[in-house]
Specification:
mainly alpha
Length: 68
C-alpha cells in the first residue's frame, strides 16, 4: 500500500492534467426564447405545496390566454 504523501501527489498530478472545459460565448438557448418569452427565476417551494403551486400557475396561464 502506498504512503499517504505519494497518493496525494498522484491525485494532484491527475487534477492538474485535467483541462476544464467551459461554455463558449453564445452557448445555450437564446434569452427570451422560453415558454413565456420573458426572464424566469427558479424558486424553492415546500414539497407539500408543489402540486398546488403548479395548478395555480396553470390556471393563471390559461386565464391569461383566454383574456387575450
Amino acid at each position: 500500500m502506498p504512503k499517504k504523501s505519494a497518493k496525494k501527489s498522484a491525485t494532484k498530478a491527475v487534477k492538474k492534467s485535467v483541462k476544464k472545459v467551459g461554455r463558449g460565448t453564445g452557448a445555450g438557448r437564446p434569452k427570451g426564447s422560453g415558454k413565456f418569452g420573458c426572464p424566469t427565476k427558479a424558486i424553492r417551494v415546500p414539497t407539500h405545496l408543489e402540486q398546488e403551486i403548479v395548478e395555480f400557475a396553470l390556471r393563471k396561464t390559461k386565464t391569461k390566454k383566454n383574456s387575450d
